[in-house]
Every structure is written in structure tokens, then in C-alpha cells.
TrEMBL record:
Entry protein name: Helix-turn-helix transcriptional regulator
UniProt GO BP: regulation of DNA-templated transcription
Region named Disordered: 111-133
Classification via Pfam families: HxlR (PF01638)
């Protein structure tokens, strides 16, 4: 029986990619990252920019992104308090991936069927409305 340590083992790329995907998987994370790739946002601006997201969900997704080192949260000692969110350098390295996705969408987006947005507050309101005869 050979004595091998984990460091000597070859990395399992499937597992490594699963870890990478988990950083950006979440109901709203990619949309948040897309916006923050454009500029620095305040909490209220993000909430307005992302239709259908609740305050609770935005807070949860931002906390996860911050804990993973993909965004920074800066609190300014002002009255009323001001909080800004910005991408970290680590997250900015995803820029080429976002550009590639944008290019792919420009080429193939028209061929993707349009689906109603089943997420968030507006979707819940649609579900609760009685059907018209």
C-alpha cells in the first residue's frame, strides 16, 4: 500500500470546478456580479436594479459574496449610514468570462426562447392574482 498525501494527488478538476461554480451559484449572484462589474453600487441601487429581489435575499447573497472574497462592503460613518459594494480584484479576474458570456449572448441570445421570470416578488404577485375568465 502506497503512502500518498493529498498534496501529492492530482487535483480532481470536476471537484475544483464544482467549487468554482458554487461561488457564483445562487439565485441572484451572477446578476449582482454583472452589475458590480460595471461600477460601485449602494445597497438601494442594487435592489432597484434587480427587479424582483427582496431585501432579505439581496442581503444574504451579498454576505455570501463578501465571505467568499468576491466583493467588498464599505460602510461610511455618515448619517444616514452609506454602504457601498464593489468587486474585489479576485472577482475582476472573472471579467474575461463575463465578456465571453456577453459575446455568446450577442451571437445566440435571439435563439433562446423568452421565459417569464418565475422569481421574486413580482412572480409571487402574479401567482396570487385570480385567473381571469
Amino acid at each position: 500500500m502506497e503512502n500518498q498525501t493529498k498534496s501529492a494527488e492530482k487535483p480532481n478538476m470536476h471537484e475544483e470546478m464544482r467549487r468554482a461554480f458554487s461561488l457564483l451559484s445562487g439565485k441572484w449572484k451572477l446578476e449582482i456580479m454583472w452589475l458590480l462589474n460595471q461600477r460601485v453600487y449602494r445597497f438601494g441601487e442594487l435592489r432597484k436594479a434587480i427587479g424582483g429581489i427582496t431585501q432579505h435575499m439581496l442581503t444574504a447573497q451579498l454576505r455570501e459574496l463578501e465571505n467568499d472574497g468576491l466583493i467588498t462592503r464599505t460602510v461610511f460613518a455618515e448619517v444616514p449610514p452609506r454602504v457601498e459594494y464593489e468587486m474585489t480584484e479576485k472577482a475582476r479576474a472573472l471579467g474575461p468570462t463575463m465578456q465571453a458570456l456577453m459575446q455568446w449572448w450577442s451571437e445566440y441570445g435571439d435563439s433562446v426562447p423568452v421565459k417569464p421570470n418565475p422569481r421574486g416578488r413580482t412572480a409571487l404577485q402574479r401567482e396570487r392574482q385570480p385567473l381571469k375568465p
